[in-house]
Amino acid sequence: MMEIDEVVKILREKVPRHPYQSREPLHVLIATVISQRTKDEVTYTVAERLFKRFPTARELKNGDVDEIAQLIYPAGFYRQKATKIKEIARIIDEKYNGKVPDSMEELLKLPGVGRKTANIVLSRCFNKDAIAVDTHVHRISNRLGWVHTRTPQETEEELMNVLPRKYWKEINELLVMFGRTICRSQKPRCEKCPVKNFCEYYKKRWVAGQRDK
Prior knowledge:
Elements: H1 2-14, H2 25-35, H3 40-53, H4 57-61, H5 65-72, H6 78-95, H7 104-107, H8 115-126, H9 135-144, H10 152-162, H11 168-181, H12 200-212
Helix pairs in contact: 2-3, 2-6, 2-8, 5-6, 9-10, 9-11
C-alpha cells in the first residue's frame, strides 16, 4: 500500500503529461478508437483534423465515409475505422440524442468499443472511478509486482483489488506516459527509472546481474 502511494507520487512528479488532454466525450471516444494499432503522434494529429471538420456526432454521422477515411489517414486500418466511426456517430446521434453514454453497459454496445476504451471515456470524461488497462498498464503493473496476471482483463480485475480507488482515474495516464518514456516494452530504461527501487522486475534483473559477475 505504502509502496503504491510512493510510486504514484514519484510518477506524478517525473512523468510528462499526456499530450491529448481533451475531456469531450465524443472526441475521447473516437480518438481512442483511432488509436488502436496506431502510433500516438498519428492518433492525436488525425483526431484533431477529424473533429475540426466534424465536431459533433450528427455532423460525423452525415459525413462521407471516404472523407472520414482520408481525414484519419495514416492511422492503421483507417478505412475500416472510418466505417466504424461513422456507425458509432450514427448510434450516438439517433439513440443517445447526440451524447456519449456514461455507463459501461451502453458503451460496450458501440461497435469497436471494448473495456479499455469504455474505461478511458468513463474516467476521463465522466469522472468515474474506472481503471483503463492497455498494454502499458498491463506490462508495468506486472513489472512492478502489483499484479501477476496474463491478460489485460485479469489485470483490471486485480488492480481493482490492490490499487487504492483514489488512483483509479489517473493510473492509465501515468503508466502510459511512463511506458512510452522509461518502462518500454523492449529495452526498458531501468537505469533511468525513478521507481526502480520499488520494482520487482528491476530487482530480479539487478540481482541476477550481480550473481552473473
